[in-house]
Amino acid sequence: MIRKVPIYRMRPSSGPLIGAGVVLLFGVGVYQYAAQDPMMFDFPSQLILAVCVALSGILVIIATGRMWFKHLWHDRYKNKR
Description:
Helices cover 57% and strands 0% of the residues. With 81 residues, it is mainly alpha-helical. Helix 1 (14-36) runs antiparallel to helix 2. The longest helix is centred in the first third of the chain and has 23 residues, at 14-36. The chain starts with 13 loop residues before the first helix and ends in a 13-residue tail after the last helix.
């Protein structure tokens, strides 16, 4: 007896992952640009880098949030007609 069991692939959401990468690159870019001439900027570039790293981490958690909890491992709305 062969059972037809659907196989669900657990993948993180691509939107928040791409957003996390962009935010992280923006933070590193601002930090590097401000590090070239520290007297040119009035804002602390380390603070901007820290905020970007935190925001990027939150976006990664959002993208992989479905994998953290077993009760979200279903795909009940995909094939609903």
